[in-house]
Fold this sequence. Notes:
globular, alpha+beta, four-stranded antiparallel beta sheet
Amino acid sequence: MLKVQEIRELIKLIDQSTIDEFVYENDGSKIKMKKNAGETVTTVQPMLQTAVSAAPAVQHIPAPSATPVAAVQETTQETPKAEAATEAAASNLHKITSPMVGTFYGSPSPDADAYVKPGSKVTKDSIVCIVEAMKLFNEIEAEVNGEIVEVLVKNGQLVEYGQPLFLVKPE
């Protein structure tokens, strides 16, 4: 099975290429990526292996519908100086983004402490959260050494591919 980082790289490569559909099969697992109107839909399925047949499970996953921009825009009443300071501070922060569509979990179990919180020090290999997709729990790593500045999503929240989850101040 491919690691989350390898799947992320595949998604980036497919997204930047002119390929419309990509299928990868290895060791009883199948990854299928399809572009739909500029969006990339990724499906990871374990293949069913029986003595009679080895047919993959067929599942249709609709692409996320486009939300009108007007419905998402928020108006802020910040002064231009405050806005410029906020942008300057955010520009040097690293965003840890979701590699897939799924449900965000900040801890390994409901009764356990969160992996990280604002002020936590992380390394590239530190697990910062779990994203559940199709009953698979995928551990998300920090990818950078630094300090967690902000957690951008709530526990149990649905997240989209590429959605920022954390802001990290790199060391």
